[in-house]
Amino acid sequence: MTSDDFLNDRRDGGTFPAAAPAPAAETVIAVDGVRRSYKDGFEAVSGVSFSVARGELFALLGTNGAGKTSTVELLEGLALPTSGTIKVLGHDPYRERAAVRPRTGVMLQEGGFPSDLTVLETALMWSACTTGARPAAEALEMVGLTSRAKVRVKQLSGGEKRRLDLALALTSRPEVLFLDEPTTGLDAEGRRDTWDLIRALRESGTTVLLTTHYLEEAETLADRLAIMHQGQIVTAGTTAEVTAAHPARIRFTLPDGVPAAHLPLSLQAGADGQRVEIRTSTLQASLHELLGWAVESGVELLGLDARSASLEEAFLQIANTQLRSRADDPRRAGPRHGSDRPTDGSTPNETKKVTA
Ligand SMILES: Nc1ncnc2c1ncn2[C@@H]1O[C@H](COP(=O)(O)OP(=O)(O)OP(=O)(O)O)[C@@H](O)[C@H]1O
């Protein structure tokens, strides 16, 4: 079959087969007390534990260097943890690679494709190396690259390369999909399309572990998420659970002649002239007290706005802590020897490449 045959096959408007539905609450990814140190002694992952159920979409967030990729590479079986245990689909992804790899799809931060092959040739090559592969043209159609099939990889934009990465990750019809920053470099429309595709995959039963810098992406897609900081998970849960730990905010402007000092002490307001901001972990009670005071005092609260903490605010609070403590990061103790080789014997570049 030629490249054109593959494309023509897909032009008849075929649909994507859905993965078989699976029993609820089966743990598909189990990470327990995992640590990863590199050759220079730097500990990038410092005791991480979490689990992901079948069909769940779990997002790993964190600032630059928090240890997301170092963790995900372990789950993908690209390196061994220094200590702790990892099970993917019930197997050790490194030692039992042959049992795990055919059932997973991996989209790394850098795919490392041969740049002179066309998009379709790349997908065909990948498909030929994969057992039970999805047809190459189908994978390209899923990510919206059909019209770019004959273009050489080196001529693709950064966003198109990300989409090709995703097409290859989908080639094995994976039960578990690892997506490392899947929408970096995509424009707004490409990002939305990718979100739709990830949602569709999840709805068809695929388990997804996603790392991302886009908080909106995690908020939109994830069933649960974890925020990493200096190699550890600082907080985890649903978006609502994660943000619940952070103070809500009430803002309003007082009329001229009513100073913020007149507000009840328990509201602990910060004021800039007549503009007042209250931070509270008991939003309903604080609002109740504020409104009661306003009615009693005959004061109108101009532009009153009350809202729970957003994921962005929760994240920024953690990130600010990181900025303050970066200089004291205990993981940076001890000499660095120039070599960036992990203790597991792989090189940094090896761990960035897609392996079948
Ligand atoms: N091969 C290596 N040798 C030594 N240190 C490394 C190596 N690879 C990564 N690191 C360090 O480990 C830490 C975690 O890196 P990692 O890439 O896992 O973070 P990340 O959360 O994925 O960051 P980003 O969001 O920037 O991709 C960083 O401080 C990084 O410099």
TrEMBL record:
Keywords: Antibiotic resistance, ATP-binding, Nucleotide-binding, Transport. One of its GO terms (molecular function) is ATP binding. Transmembrane segments: none annotated. Residues 322-356 are annotated as: Disordered. SMART domains: AAA (SM00382). Residues 29-255 form the ABC transporter domain. InterPro entries: AAA+_ATPase (IPR003593), ABC_transporter-like_ATP-bd (IPR003439), ABC_transporter-like_CS (IPR017871), ABC_transporter_ATP-binding (IPR050763), P-loop_NTPase (IPR027417). It is found in: Cell membrane. Residues 325-343 have a biased composition (Basic and acidic residues). It is a peripheral membrane protein. Pfam families: ABC_tran. This is ABC transporter ATP-binding protein. It comes from Streptomyces durocortorensis. The lineage of its organism: Bacteria, Bacillati, Actinomycetota, Actinomycetes, Kitasatosporales.
